[in-house]
Design goal:
The protein has 83 residues and is mainly alpha-helical. It has 4 helices and no strands. The longest helix is centred in the last third of the chain and has 29 residues. It is elongated, with a radius of gyration of 25 Å.
Length: 83
Amino acid sequence: MKNKGENEMNDELNSEYDFAQMKRGIRGKYVERYRAGTNLVLLDVDVAQAFPDDKAVNDALRLLIQVAQRQHIKTVVQGTEQS
């Protein structure tokens, strides 16, 4: 006969889960992205509200990269002229 503590350890699911409502899930929905090496990033709520989709996030980050690269080049050029 199993003791009570052993049964409690095996039952990790909460009793309020209704698995009948979970039939609409699609197995492997993102498997191709995963295999392609896509990185998933969790955005904070305030940041996510500023971007409607992944394209908007990528466009903003690309623009930020361009600005940073231009600033770096400008800093290097100015530093060379002063020497």
